[in-house]
Structures are given as C-alpha cells and as structure tokens.
User: Fold this.
Amino acid sequence: MNNNLLFDFTVDKAAKTVFITREFDADLDLVWDAFTKAEFLDQWNAPAPFTAKTKAMDFRVGGRRFYAMISPEGNERWAIQRYTSISPKTNFKMFNAFADKDENPELPGSEWDYTFSEQNGPDGYPVTKVNITIYNESLARMEKMIEMGFTEGFKMIMTNLENLLASLSQK
Assistant:
C-alpha cells in the first residue's frame, strides 16, 4: 500500500470554486467504476454515520443520478446529479443540486468536473489521480456548504473510497 498519496483540497472563494486532487492506490478502471456505478457509489459516497442510497442512475450524457444521504435516524437528504459530458475513463462533468424526494432541484447548484489519469507509483503499481473542480453558481451556497462541514465530509468520503478500493483490489 502506498502511503504517500497526494490529497489537496483548496477553496477559492473569489472563483466560487473548490479544487481537489486525490491519488488512489488502485488502477484507473477500478477508480472510474467507483465514481460511475451506483453499486460502488452507495458504498462510499456519504460521510459516516450517513449512508448513501441511489434511487436511480443512468450514467450517460443527459442521464442522472438521484440519491439520498441517510442519517442513522432515517432522515433522507436528496440530491440530483445530471451528467453533461462523459469521456470514458478520462473525464465526466455533472450538475449537482440538492433536491426534494420528488427530484425537484433546490437551486442554485454546482458544476462538477472530474478528470482521471493513471501513472506508475513509486512501488511500480498503478496510482490513479483524480482532479475534481467544483464550481458553485452562488458564493453564498458555497460558503453555506463549507459552514455545514463540506470539507470534513468530503475528506471522510475520500477515506471511505480509499478503503473500498483497497478491499476491492484484494479480491
């Protein structure tokens, strides 16, 4: 296991954008699947003690993922993601917004841009780098999300993903 993996999280309020770079000790195919398939997303895409549940997902340009983060008490916080661009194994973009249980988005939302690349790590095994850019339509929305713990929550889900990838890589 490579313990020298990059994790950078930068908030640029002037640009209303969050920049994240994260390396994973796994090959590109597995990391891509973890970000684009509901059965994997539901295993890592919520900070503890919350869990994620995908109600619908159609990963194609124009498709969407509609999912909830569920608290231990059973409270659901829904979000909808609409895929706007997909270049298999290298990039996808989506518009993300909170929503009600009937898929009505709560605007404003944010635009997410994911870029994936693979390189050899220092131990000779592949390392996959994921660059994520999150542009917020509203500075107030971005500031509220950060105030509500977005930074800490995102770091937690990246750890969840790292653990899932380690588990899947051993199979």
In short: Residues 79 and 98 are 4 Å apart (CA to CA).
